[in-house]
Amino acid sequence: MKSLMDGIYRLGKDFATLSMVPKTKVYDEKTLQKGKDEYRLWDPKKSKLGAALRMGLKETGIFEGAKVLYLGVASGTTASHISDIVGPSGAIYGVEFSARSIRDLLSVSKKRTNIIPVLADARMPQLFAPRVEKVHILYQDIAQKDQSEIFIRNADTFLKKGGVAMIAIKARSIDVTENPNKIFAQEKQKLLKKFNIIQQINLGYFEKDHAFFLCRLK
Which of 33, 94, 179, 184 is 20 to 30 Å apart from 171, CA to CA? Predict the structure, then answer.
């Protein structure tokens, strides 16, 4: 199977990652066996990064050995695919505020040892900074009114110069009464103060009122 971008493979309309832990599913994803290799199909209905890929995301910046800070990691659905890409030499610091989700993530991290669960509030990076190193990639999926500000604050604290950052912005979490496209435009202006925006994708087909931004730190 040919790699479309680092660690991500294309199978028809689907995307997949080469499983780091064969015969072990994370979220009841479909798998495909090719010789000795097992590929995990990336469900775009259960992962915003998976949805962005299906909607035309050109790159992720994620590579084997990369260090990743994932804000709003939840139980590890998307993080498990990133885990496949970065491999044993990489690391994903998964920050999550929900104790229930962290318990689920701990179960995943027992076999995927490159996932490091961090029970913390992403709004206060200074509190978990001692446990997280500088990273190549910042990824955020947090449904909060101040989600862009949280993203920028963590980029200032953890993201290496020139690092890649991705954020899924949920318009209804910012203002349920405003037109989502207006909110996306407002949030984009905030991001432009800190990042160069490589690509913006509307995830509406898979995630209503969501926009995905691929950025690079200035």
Answer: 94
